[in-house]
């Protein structure tokens, strides 16, 4: 009983830590999960290339799917990722989605995409790796495109498909979302509400840039990578709780942003948005 699945990472339009409403878009970088089920009843986990990684989240995902669709099986889950953990690129949401779908695949079971996504969100809450549940990140990864969600009620407010080039800058440091200073984020709630209006209006680029300046200030990240990408890109933001930055727009503008970011310490790359979301196999 082996199942495999993959789910894309994501970038931020609106960080939900201020008001509970957030928005994110899927990017073409995957987390893959392989789940092997057995009769031991015990679940173990492994992250490829990172023997010290905390595997509680993905093990919780396997247990929750087995509890709903299985018959007491145990097993092993292994993830492989094209994005770093704690970079701001939603690796935990992608890992949860991929693990849920891989476990369903191993059980030869099925469930609607949004319900599968919510199962991963509940697992993330149980594992303590999220502040709001991050349904914004999880829904963008599971469904593809740009989503806007209310994470206080796990409601999908909007989903649209976009086609942007994307530049990513990942500084060398790491920032776990669960460690973010939520009370400082709550101070920028009035700005977050403006970002929400822009996002629900489809003005994603402007929304991202306003979000980026507000959350760099709240969380103490440098605004220089944002200024370096402007005014040519359609939008640029700190992604999630940092430390990564994402810029979106036309190819030439996004390439120019990436070239400027290459002078900084860390890693940069170019990718695109994804509209198809997570998939089995
Ligand atoms: N690729 C992965 N495989 C397995 N578990 C993962 C993976 N990525 C994240 N996790 C789990 O989620 C926890 C939180 O990770 P992380 O801070 O990266 O999540 P995040 O909130 O999505 O942040 P970011 O957006 O910065 O990636 C990790 O400690 C780990 O337990
Ligand atoms: O842990 C969380 O609840 C979140 C973390 C970040 O990715 C945010 O961008 C997201 O909106 C919510």
Automatic annotation (TrEMBL):
Residues 57-145 form the GHMP kinase N-terminal domain. The keyword Disulfide bond does not apply. It is an enzyme of class 2 (transferase). Its EC number is 2.7.1.71. Keywords: Amino-acid biosynthesis, Aromatic amino acid biosynthesis, ATP-binding, Cytoplasm, Kinase, Nucleotide-binding, Transferase. It comes from the Archaea. GO terms for biological process: amino acid biosynthetic process; aromatic amino acid family biosynthetic process; chorismate biosynthetic process. Pathway: Metabolic intermediate biosynthesis; chorismate biosynthesis; chorismate from D-erythrose 4-phosphate and phosphoenolpyruvate: step 5/7. It is found in: Cytoplasm. It catalyses: shikimate + ATP = 3-phosphoshikimate + ADP + H(+). GO terms for molecular function: ATP binding; shikimate kinase activity. GO terms for cellular component: cytoplasm. ATP binds at residues 84-94. InterPro entries: GHMP_kinase_N_dom (IPR006204), Ribosomal_Su5_D2-typ_SF (IPR020568), Ribsml_uS5_D2-typ_fold_subgr (IPR014721), SK_arc (IPR010189). PANTHER family: HOMOSERINE/4-DIPHOSPHOCYTIDYL-2-C-METHYL-D-ERYTHRITOL KINASE, SHIKIMATE KINASE. HAMAP family: Shik_kinase_arch. Belongs to the GHMP kinase family. Archaeal shikimate kinase subfamily. This is Shikimate kinase. It comes from Halosegnis marinus. The lineage of its organism: Archaea, Methanobacteriati, Methanobacteriota, Stenosarchaea group, Halobacteria. The gene is aroK.
